[in-house]
Amino acid sequence: MNKLFATSLIAAALAFAAGSATAQQYTTPPKGTNTYPAMTPEEMERAKAEKAAGKETKSEMTDAEKKAANAEKQKAMKAQGTSSDSTKPTTTPEQQAKAKADRAAKKQAKSKMTAEEKKAANAAKQKQMKETTTEQQQQNKP
Q1: pLDDT tens-place values along the chain, 142 residues long
Q2: CA-based angle 138:141:142, to the nearest 5?
Q3: For residues 6 and 12, is the Cβ–Cβ distance under 8 A?
Q4: End-to-end distance of the chain based on CA atoms, in angstroms?
Q5: What is the DSSP string of 4-62?
Q6: Is the pTM above the cut of 0.70?
Q7: Pseudo-torsion of CA 48, 51, 55, 61, nearest 10°?
Q8: How far apart (Å, rounded) are the C-alpha atoms in residues 8 and 20?
């Protein structure tokens, strides 16, 4: 019992040490800045100047101008396909209806299958997933 406890304690300590060593590999931004050191000093200066210019312009705007600018920004984001509203679905109502109909058809087809057919279908699906995973791993190898 004591050997088992000691072994598990040592394994936990090693796992904790490995985790903390991995966490220390990532760089943190220098104190007093919000940017990572990957930026050159020239890029940092340019970014700071752009930010200061943006703040200056925004401070000179009236409330109505700010609302119009925000509306323009939202319109531009929507045109690009990005949205700040994370609750909004990314599919159109027609696409949602088609997906719902497809799910219902699959469910109905599966309910008509026998146990052997379901087993065979699940085995084929598992095989396809395994092949896809293997292909992805091979593509990610350097």
Answers
A1: 677 777 776 777 666 666 665 555 555 655 666 655 577 889 889 999 999 998 888 888 888 988 998 899 888 887 776 655 666 667 788 988 999 999 999 899 888 988 899 899 899 989 999 888 888 777 776 6
A2: 145
A3: no
A4: 45
A5: HHHHHHHHHHHHHHHHHHHHTTS--PPTT-SS-TTS-HHHHHHHHHHHHHHHHHHHHS-
A6: no
A7: 140
A8: 18
Question: d(Cα 90, Cα 92) in Å, to the nearest integer?
Answer: 7
The tokens for 13 are 């300590």
What is residue 101's DSSP assignment? H
| Single-letter amino acid, residue 80 | Q
Residue corresponding to tokens 């087809």: 109
